[in-house]
Amino acid sequence: MSSGFSFLTDLAHFEADCFPFEIGRFVELTTVFYHTTVISFLIFLYNKVYFVPTTTSKWKEIATGFETYWQFPHCIGALDGKHIVIRPPPNSGSYYFNYKHTFSIVLLALVDADYKFTYVNIGCNGRISDGGVNGNSSLCAALETNSLNVPLPFPICEDGIPLPYMIVADEAFPLKTYIQKPYAQIGLTKEKRIFNYRLSRARRIVENAFGILANRFQVFMTPIRLSPDKAETIVLACCSLHNFLRSSSARHVYTPPGSVDAEDTTTYRTIQGSWRTEKQPTGIIDIERQGSNNYTAKAKEIRDYLCEYFNSDKGALPWQDKMI
After folding, report:
1. Are 96 and 105 in contact (CB under 8 A)?
2. How far apart are CA 214 and CA 30, in angstroms?
3. What is the DSSP string of 134-179?
């Protein structure tokens, strides 16, 4: 088991150890290591960690976490995506070619208020944007049909209108009744800037989760020189191990104080997590931020209602005006 952990956390060193051998020998060793450690390691983690909630009570538990820690009501997760840089398969042409001029598969992830992954979709080719990956994902399909037992709409305050439970995301994603994203930056009123700040507080959880993942697992420091299917399994193993460590007594070793972004409400500034100042990995990169401005009247109504709530006596935070 320890060899599997080492493979995931320090693949760069594993590769360095193989440099005296010919390339074919390295590929052979990597393949053997993959089959004998990573798969067994992933099976072990599957018995310890689960992802997508399927009960109303679990979704409500996640929403309570976001409201308690980040003061965003009815939030069932923060959504984002990353490119995982890989070695392209032979004869794949531009299928995996992304806007950064590298070859990649896309990791789409939903994160709870405790920086744990509750949904991951890995393997979509790198040519597709965040929004495109989401639109084709099983998560989007399940939310459209409400097959995940997400709680029914409910007022967030006394005398309020029933409001659906929702995901927070950035501008790369479409605005929907179940996905809230910031207002466009052009012509923002103070009220809309407040909304964007409040949404950003909840959404940056997924940004920090990705930052921790990329900096704790050395496999992401350089491109993963394996086929897409093997890279997909390695990424899933890392996400599983991340959840396992965040849920165990080792969480304060895995993510010690200062690891993630925090707010100082006395000086009104954001304190960056330590992962932002460490060496930045080249094997995991941002998705292109090109979102859609097409949305339904109902999705707009929900965002505008939240904007009004965050600027009201019932929903405002004492320090929010100083943070914009």
Report:
1. yes
2. 21
3. HHTSHHHHHHHHTTT-PPPPB-SSTTPPPB--EEE--TTSPPBTTE
Q: Give the pLDDT confidence score for residue 13 in this predicted structure.
A: 41
Q: What is the pTM of this model?
A: 0.87
The ranges assigned to domains in the chain are 1-47, 51-252+281-323
200's tokens: 């950003």
Q: What's the rounded mean pLDDT across residues 11-35?
A: 42
Average pLDDT, the chain: 85
Torsion over CA of 301, 307, 310 and 311, rounded to 10 degrees? -120
Among candidate residues 87, 88, 64, 86, the one with its CA nearest the CA of residue 77: 64
d(CA 260, CA 209): 8
For strands 166-168 and 269-271, give the pairing.
unpaired
The whole-angstrom separation of Cα 294 and Cα 310 is 24
pLDDT on residue 119? 92
Q: Which residue has the tokens 């070793």?
A: 253
